[in-house]
Amino acid sequence: MEIKANAENIKTWLETINTFNSTPEFGTTRVLFTDVEVKAREYVKSEMRKLNLKVHEDAIGNIFGVLEGTRPELPPIWTGSHIDTVLNAGMFDGMSGVVAGLEAVRLIQANNLKHERNIIVVVYTSEEPTRFKLGCLGSRAMAGKLDEKQAKELIDDDGNTLYKVLTKLGFPVQDFDKVPIKKGSVYGAVELHIDQNGVLEKAGKPIGIVKTICAPSVFDVEVVGKQSHAGGTTMEDRQDAFMATAEIALALEKLGKTSQSEYTTTTIGRVQVIPNAVNVIPGKVIFSIDIRDCDYDYKNDLIAKLKEEIKAIAKKRNVVVNITQYNNDYPMKCDENIIKKLEAACEKENTSYIKTISGAFHDSMLVGEFAPVAMIFVPSKDGISHSPNEWTDFADIAAGANILTDVLVELANEV
Ligand code: GLV
Ligand code: MN
Ligand code: MN
Q1: How far is the CA of 28 from the centre of ligand 2 (A)?
Q2: pTM, to two decimals
Q3: What is the pLDDT of residues 86-97, one digit of tens each?
Q4: Cβ 360 under 6 angstroms from ligand 1
Q5: Distance in Å, CA 308 to ligand 1 centroid
């Protein structure tokens, strides 16, 4: 490939997407189907069209930009990621994979590279669970794990269902049953993403090739105690929902730290204390639990142990604990054939790499249910992500885009 990825293109796309931001004073916030997110979608679609891609969307808002190959009847190759963010995020998580995909299709055309299969840049709807508490909505629906009925049940904090929001925005919800992708109808999918652990930076390597993507289980927990006076109620008489929560939190942390699995994380990221006043014993606490593992059985074993601990804590503290589980996703092993191609591309481009595990989840985790998947990681400063301090050099994304392009073309001509 003579013409290589251009870091300036990457920079321009990322900075422009970053102008669609509801918290410019503190990082980047682009929550699914908010005004800024819808505008960012329009921008990405217009850039796709400029790159000669044919653009279409499905009922849940996944965006497909198709670069037609010489044999469009063959199962295509996919690349892409997401453009929604968590609250007060950075400008790279997700967006890097989308713009690397754009740069790849630009390079394929600029270098006149033959590709028999179609190459499709995909923007998956809501990889982040920010609005509907459940992540990977678009890829989940593609994998047949989020249907119209569930879309009518998923509710945001304002009481809107996902289905209602999609309808209001004019997505073709009548075609919800056409969203799932049949196994075998996509030949392979490669997603570029920033490393959210710091392992690349520590190893001094520009590329990470992902072996396994850890998968989450997410819960909402409601602890119901008894609201009462902070001075009047003796220590013995309390049914303190917050103290019970604190004990659950420490039990959860211990289970994560003592896990025998290769990679486990346990997090409480969202806590609502009711009534949240200085001189009132909290009567209720609602919080989230996020448990991840690269091994499904280890994860379920940890969940079972946690439920036992919660039962004992509830009994001891005389509170009621209600648990709602949102998902229990499967960790995804990346495809050996694509991994080999990624290694060969790194060698060809004279780029060193390491193989790594992704503690973060990605749309590839669900795409892997119907197609062979692989992921390219590029370094992130100090491994910081989901933070305004997230940073990746544009040149590092460009280096990743070169590897991505090589492999997309290889796959597109593997017939
Ligand atoms: C996705 O961003 C995740 O939480 O891993
Ligand atoms: Mn993220
Ligand atoms: Mn991401």
Answers
A1: 12
A2: 0.95
A3: 999 999 999 999
A4: yes
A5: 27
